[in-house]
Amino acid sequence: MQIDFKNMISPVEGADRITWAEVEALKKRGEAIDADLRARRGRGDLPFHDLPYQDVTSVLKYAEEARGRFENFVVAGIGGSALGNIALQTALRHPHHNLLPEAQRGGPRMFFPDNIDPDMVGGLFDVLDPKETLFNVITKSGSTAETMSTFLLVRQALIDAVGDRWREHVVVTTDPAKGDLRQIATEEGLTAFDIPEGVGGRFSVLTPVGLLSAAVSGIDIQVLLSGAAAMDARLKASALDRNPAYVCAALMYLADAHKGRRIVVMMPYVQALRDVADWFRQLWAESLGKRLSLAGEVVHVGQTPVKALGATDQHSQMQLYVEGPHDKVVVFLAVERYDRTLIFPAAYGEKASLGYFSGRTMNELIQAERVATALALTQRQRPNMTITLPEVSPQTVGQLLYLLEVQTLYAGGLYGVDPLDQPGVEAGKVATYALMGRKGYEQQRVEILREIASDARYLL
Ligand code: PA5
């Protein structure tokens, strides 16, 4: 994997882009953060670092059986309990997996209904038969409203279809000890996988949260983990100013805090990495968007992550990125090799809009469009950088996800916030429980109902 950040850096002080002197000036702080992260890892306080080295025998065994038994696999989860799964699926499966004939698919059709829209969730049962379906209910807390309510519907649909055998159609992934879902799993005798203690939702893609669905769909999870381990080794061995996780975090932090680049756009020119950008959006937003610093001061920090897709969004967003406010950094994701090469046939050679394609490839076209877009941004003083993978494979995706997770930890240090908590999300969860009448939230309900009551002056 190669990271090219030339277009982030300006040789001229005071320019729109960061100078290398600014990166250097941050080094002392960077070293303190690095030492702190290494010490916490040494004490076992950052267990997500251990994930590349875990034993996945039980996940593989269960997945192998499920692949043979079920026509469909559905993940019920939300946020960090869904986005990593979806990113892995989009990156590493056939782009039209569910439409392939069964023999070519080699495993179940995969569904990820990570919302509670009644039409979408209800509509799922129009296209799959519960008798042929395995449902993976994923929630770290074991109590998230969206997931637990979907579980109720799934369970009922299964009872209606297969009676007492519904338990064979549900596998849960949750906290090893805490939460209602863990308790239900124990009482009902459901198969359950653990999300290790101390690994939060958005850092859990390499736990059974992401690994089970990946293995069921045929992704080689051992190679995925070996990719993460390779990145771990690279990060551990690098001097700070050559450490890709730290350097990327420092560039983003400086672009935001020093240059007013409040938005980071992740823009893959690889359809398969589209949902890695979506996963990163949550990772960066929930980890860094904080009201309080570690010292308890009100800081309201965080760079807003946006996902875009090349070349598609050149025809939707690029006008804004090139000429709109100077408030963005663009991070391109690229690959050296796509799985396929599509050669344009020679035809209409005399037509200006077609003749030049003859004998060239779609691969060359998308690469040219990415390079041209980076150039257009750079010419307008818009900072941008490019992360290039040799190809999209379990090995390289494992490296990329792990890199972005560690980058987020360094960024948390630079912003001076805790990247592992999410008090704002919790507040929304509490308000939902209160509105839905959950026991223990009576007082909040009274206050919330008062607060949200309509005011005739502001109704049209
Ligand atoms: O990253 C996080 O912690 C959150 O986004 C959670 O993943 C999300 O809120 C879902 O929580 P849970 O897995 O407890 O259902």
Descriptive notes:
- The protein has 460 residues and is of the alpha/beta class.
- It folds into three domains: 2-39 and 224-415, Rossmann fold; 50-219, Rossmann fold (3-Layer(aba) Sandwich), CATH 3.40.50; 431-458, no CATH class.
- It has 17 helices and twelve strands.
- It has helices at residues 20-25, 27-42, 57-69, 83-92, 102-105, 118-127, 145-162, 180-188, 208-216, 221-237, 244-259, 274-288, 318-323, 362-379, 394-415, 423-435, 442-452, and strands spanning 2-4, 72-76, 109-111, 133-139, 170-174, 191-194, 263-268, 290-292, 298-301, 304-307, 328-335, 384-389.
- The strands form three sheets. The chain has a five-stranded mixed beta sheet with strand order 1-12-11-7-10, sandwiched between helices.
- Helix 3 packs across helix 9 (208-216), helix 11 crosses helix 15 (394-415) and helix 12 (274-288) packs parallel to helix 15 (394-415).
- The N and C termini lie far apart (55 Å).
- 5-phosphoarabinonic acid (PA5) is lined by residues 78-81, 139-141, 144, 147, 200-202, 286, 422, 425.
- Residues 78-81, 139-141, 144, 147, 200-202, 286, 422, 425 line the site of 5-phosphoarabinonic acid.
Number of E-type strands: 12
Low-confidence stretches: none
Distance between the termini: 55 Å
The strand order across the widest sheet is 1-12-11-7-10
Q: How much is the average pLDDT?
A: 96
Number of helices: 17
Overall spatial form: globular
H/E element sequence: EHHHEHHEHEHEHEHHHEHEEEHEHEHHH
Secondary-structure-based class equals: alpha/beta
- CATH topology annotation of the largest domain: Rossmann fold
Main sheet record = 5 strands, mixed
Domains counted in the coordinates: how many? 3
Radius of gyration equals: 24 Å
Specify the CATH class of the largest domain. Alpha Beta
Query: Which range best describes the helical content: under 10%, 10-25%, 25-40%, 40-55%, 55-70% or over 70%?
Result: 40-55%
Bound compounds, please? 5-phosphoarabinonic acid
- Percentage of residues in DSSP E strands: 5-15%
In CATH terms, the superfamily of the largest domain is: Glucose-6-phosphate isomerase like protein, domain 1
CATH second-level architecture of the largest domain:
3-Layer(aba) Sandwich
